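Researcher: Quick one. two chains, 654 residues in total.
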Amino acid sequence: MSMEKLIQVYGLKKYFPITEGVLIQRETGSVKAVDDLSFDIFRGETLGLVGESGCGKTTTGRTLIQLYEPTAGEVLFEGQDLAEMKSTNLRGLRKRMQMIFQDPFASLNPRWTISQIIGEPLKVHKMGNNKQRAERVQELLDIVKLNSFYMNRYPHEFSGGQRQRIGIARALASKPDFIVCDEPISALDVSIQAQIVNLLEDLQEQFGLTYLFIAHDLSMVRHICSRVAVMYLGIIVELASRDDLYDTPMHPYTQALLSAVPIPDPVATRSRKRIILEGDPPSPSDPPSGCRFHPRCAIAKEHCQTDIPIWREIKPDHWVACHEV
Amino acid sequence: MDPIVALDHLEVKFDTLDGVVNAVNGVSYSVESGRTLGIVGESGCGKSVSVLSIMRLIPNPPGRITGGKILFRGKNLLEYPENKMEQIRGAEIGMIFQDPMTSLNPVLTIGKQISETMVVNNGITKEEADDRTIKLLDMVGIANPEERVKEYPHQFSGGMRQRAMIAMALSCRPDILIADEPTTSLDVTIQAQIVDLVKRLQAEFGMAVIWITHDLGVVAELADRMVVMYAGYVIEEANVYELYGNPSHPYTLALLKSLPRVDASRGGERLTSIPGFPPDGITVSPGCPFAPRCSFTVDRCRHENPQLIDFNSDHKIACWVDVTTGKER
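Model:
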């Protein structure tokens, strides 16, 4: 893997306003969904983004490709700042950044045929004439291993795994460099998940794709990702290469999260030490002071309640935000 | 030990516009008190339908129980009239569901919903029931239960709703708790809390548990016995250690191989995927339902559906092929 930075993120923030009032709306606060993230994504890698629901994984993915306008911070794509860019230039870049969604049922228009769905990005980006577009749709169906015989059918005629293939074909249509995969397998049956993961891996190799793989299945993330970032309540608490993170997790949250993942082996899973976190994650509209994890942390000291931990490189390529490691 | 609940060749069918769906095809399994039975399988394999039948909660129409018996302490529940079933549901068989939001009533307080069950089933006064509700919520680990009973389901997080559901299911001290994918919509850290809670409560009350899931990880930790279902059939059944240590049906084997593990480095290999997708239950072929997706298929598999037979003293499978040699046994 070359170490060229495809995407650089500096101090990225995304707040959603909380409003009150029906006629006269006023802002009474904000949900700090993503609060000051800085990281890089290298060309050709798969960066995993894991964490519990509501921790800001999906918001991060959507803000990266400018589906949400960031509240603050910069996202550089091949060194160009996306926020500074004029809308015409941004449109050109958009076809190089695509997304695969979690729900293969909700993310496909039920009134469109498969060829319309897959051909839509080509139309939007004015790629080719009608005939070339039809050929490209055929080619894409081939790439995701769907029979092009089905191209005039509607989404409801397909199974979950097949629909996810359609979603992948649509994402590939504009020949992107970077794809945000937002929980692409969590709605699928176990026996189908491996099919889709293998397909994503083949496509990465074939087209040199870079993935941001958002997931809560930590076993699958270990399988598919080269580096992994762990999010908690809007911030990244740890970022390291895959095996480094799974074998020697540093942050107490990462340790607890990994110990909670069930292992399909009764001997291994019953002999292992579990760290069971108390309670639920706090609300991102009013995150705890200091280190956000301190109310649930087993090793929290007094200063953890007041001081925000510094994001530091504890050993080469292993970053962590914790006072106590 | 005699089982608390035993299914004996249960058959359930659903009438749909596309045809009759054979959801459960002669399924037998049982669980003894104090033990945990894990049932795994993909969506549509009949695992939920089989336990809903125990509660007699299959909507009719479109569903019909067309054959077999459900024995609860030796008595066939299918012969019970509805009013007698009502005394069993909740009081003797408790159930928790996958989605705690849709299984709680959004316009009643949590306290009201739990105490109501006890007033109806145990015949105690409202005040006693309210007291017990607070104790139950405390037992399932909800902080500040005196205040929390006055709140509504939307004020609870997903994990707390599932705890409230467990409190409700246990309120009448059932002999058996049926858990239908109770942690599927929860995060792993919350899942660990719930699994821990159920194990603790089971040790305390000695109830039997049937835990249904598609996640081979969760049940590895919980179950004593395992049942693997596919297309409405039990295709493998064994003690939990035997099932994971010596999986002998090609489907179980393929499922386990398709799962990456959090505790093992990948080492470069691809996941073994299972081609195709599960059958719809409408078109019935004479052969083994897994044959079209199976990598061990021999000629016989396409014509004859294998019965569940003893593989060894503690292990049953329904397969013509010996997976260690790849030959017909």
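Chain A touches chain B through 46 residues (CB under 8 Å).
Researcher: Thanks, that's what I needed.
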